[in-house]
Amino acid sequence: MSDSIRFACTGCGRCCTGHHVPLTLAEARQWALSGGQVIVLIEGFIADGPGIPADQREHVLRRSYPVSCGAGQLHVSVTFAAFNPGRCRNLDADDLCSIYDNRPLVCRIYPAEINPHLPLRPENKDCPPEAWEQGPELIHGKLLVDEGLRALIEASRQADREDIAAKVAICEALGITTSALKGNGFTAWLPDMAAFSAVLEQVPTAVDAPWSVHVQDAELTAQLHQHGLQLTADTPLYYAFIGF
């Protein structure tokens, strides 16, 4: 990461095309009410298991929720995201956001990262080179200098922590109870939006439904069996497994 990064949006619309935008619970409700499709992305991990660097453990634990999985326990992280396989439904003919004043937190935060363990790398973004050659300074001495942006990032992290129990309860109510293992992939679900919206109207409490983990790697399967987890390698019918 450079010691200094500047940024100014060029209005190209690339960041609004082909990206599933993470939503807070309130934003997911609004997205559903406006006729949008939500995609549910799930990953899980074992609190005392392998795969999570020690310096990241606190962050991932705070935005996860423990669920029963076989004879063991899995901590799951659930992301509700705006489903945008192509152009965002809110982009107008001039590639401008038609809900700009009410756009999701993640859109307001872009191009900064929400995860404190991910550095901002311009080469990983879709913005043209000129976007990084103008505008106010975002990063100086490897520190984010925009106080307003820092506040938005903290609001997003706080929403992740506050919403996770409700997200898990919503998933259980919809029968969405298969996770992937963090670092190995995600399970991706496209819920029926009528059912999703109905559950969002009155968020249930978690019912301790049994969860499973989708794993295809034989060595990883052997490791997870040692932790008593319920595993599946069956071809998914209602979700996609997105492996890394």
Q: Can you tell me about this structure?
A:
This protein has 244 residues and is α+β, with helices and mostly antiparallel strands. The chain contains 6 helices and 12 strands. Strand 4 (65-69) and strand 5 form a beta hairpin. It is globular. The relative contact order is 0.22. It comes from Pseudomonas xantholysinigenes. This is YkgJ family cysteine cluster protein. InterPro entries: Puta_zinc/iron-chelating_dom (IPR005358).
Mass-distribution shape = globular
Give the SSE order as H and E letters: EEHEHEEHEEHEEHEHEE
Can you summarize the main beta sheet? 9 strands, mixed
Uncertain residue segments = none
Provide the structure class.
Answer: alpha+beta
Number of helices: 6
Task: Please compute the radius of gyration using only Cα atoms.
Answer: 19 Å
Q: Averaging pLDDT over every residue, what do you get?
A: 92
For the terminal residues, how far apart are their CA atoms? 23 Å
Strand fraction equals 15-25%
Proportion in helices = 25-40%
Number of domains: 1
Number of strand segments: 12
InterPro entries: Puta_zinc/iron-chelating_dom (IPR005358)
Protein name: YkgJ family cysteine cluster protein
Outline of this structure?
The chain is of the alpha+beta class. It has six helices and twelve strands.
